[in-house]
Amino acid sequence: MNQTNKLLVDIDNLHKSYSNKQIETKALQGVSLAIYQGEFVAITGPSGCGKSTLLSIMGLMDSATSGHYTVAGVDTKDLKVDQKTMIRNKHIGFVFQSFNLIDEMTVFDNIALILEHRKTPKAEIKQRVEEVLSQVDMLPRQHYRPNQLSGGQQQRIAIARALVGNPDLILVDEPTGNLDTINGDKVMALLEKLNKDGATIVMVTHDTRYVRCASRQIQLLDGEIITEKQLEGVA
After folding, report:
1. SS3 of 16, please?
2. Residue 2 predicted with pLDDT over 90
3. How far is the C-alpha of 229 from the C-alpha of 208, rounded, in Å?
4. Which of 13, 77, 121, 159 sits CB 3.0–4.6 Å from 67 for a disulfide?
5. Residues 6 or more apart from 225 whose CB is under 8 A from it?
6. CB-based burial of residue 226 (10 Å sphere; 0-12 exposed, 13-18 middle, 19+ buried)?
7. pTM beyond cutoff 0.85
């Protein structure tokens, strides 16, 4: 980990409730959290504890009921949908458990999408996509379609897609959930390398084997942070 003193994520007293008819479910209850540039943070806890809800709010794909969330210096409280999309496009990369790749498009085109939305020149898109594919050792597969790849390869492509826009923050949701142990280990080794190269990563995982890859662990239970500990020096 190459942590700096630059505060990247500032979450203060975050609450999230879902209402269904007469039932209210409290997904998050007073979560406060600071994440600094260069950290690798693992968020853990049992099913239904609020891990994915917290990650979705951090990724601006969901909104808190109350509380404040600032990312890369931007207060997200009153942002409209198109503003959230713009902030997400500029500052945040997201890696999903189910990959979320578009089967009708090649690997290259899947990764290039975010840069096309930014109106990036074609030559620059080609250079950047090839750079991130090289980072994840998938350059020879750039003209394949996702359904021609293994699960481990698809997750590498999903990581390349998250990297291509040079985001300040990479959010990773259960990156090994759909992978066997061998491919899971390879994906986690890749995330560790990216963090050593300077990427700031927040990962939700239920797999305790991979918590050791992070520099800090945050454990949730019933929507609250119950423990938080540094993991530096853990092999």
Report:
1. strand
2. no
3. 14
4. 13
5. 31, 32, 33, 218, 219
6. exposed
7. yes
